[in-house]
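Why does this matter for the project? Reviewers at the last site visit asked to see concrete outputs rather than summary tables. In response, this paragraph embeds two records directly. Each consists of the residue sequence and, immediately after it, the corresponding structure tokens. Nothing has been edited or filtered.
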Amino acid sequence: MKIKTKSGFSCNLNEKKAKDWRFCRALVKCESKDESTLLEGITFVVPFLLGEDGEAKLIKHLEDKDGVASVELVMSEFKEILKQIGDAKKSQSSPSS
């Protein structure tokens, strides 16, 4: 599956990984109000879904002039990626007209 975010980040994803049990467990942590739990989740799900190369590409894409990719930007971009995956799943499961 090809993904392209509003900020211009693009990558290919293996959709099967979004259905993996480990991914789903970590994704729940990404919604936690506890910052350490949230960070534990996001640091698993991003490289798991994007792969090491995809994660490095995302971080490079989000870096500011000082070379910093803020946690907030990474999470925002990743949420957009997840939304696109969800939208694709919905369109695949909807009946054809």
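We now turn to the second protein, recorded in exactly the same manner.
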Amino acid sequence: MSQNEVGKIHYRPWGSYQTLVATDGYQLKILAVKPQGRLSLQRHAKRSERWIVVYGQPTITIADNCKDYMVTESVFIPAGTIHRLENFTMNDVKIVEVQTGSYFGEDDIERFEDIYGRI
């Protein structure tokens, strides 16, 4: 990612994300998931992610485990693990996402399910 992309808000059907830090080895993002928003059921080959809930009550699926999370709770998603972030509430959800790995491109997303037709 080029440095001119840092700070830019990227809009998606489920909400938006903003990259705060982009460097070799890690990236730091804020994800904002709108009410009833749902990211793809997906996995990444070249990066792991840690999600920290900072606002709202998301439902997070990691492998076969699906659970509601509260503010201050966090989860670790190892590279190669199927996962999804959903917001079934009527309020926004905000997540701090820390990505670590060797590559962070959007083409490292393998989608299995997507309600927005992006498979």
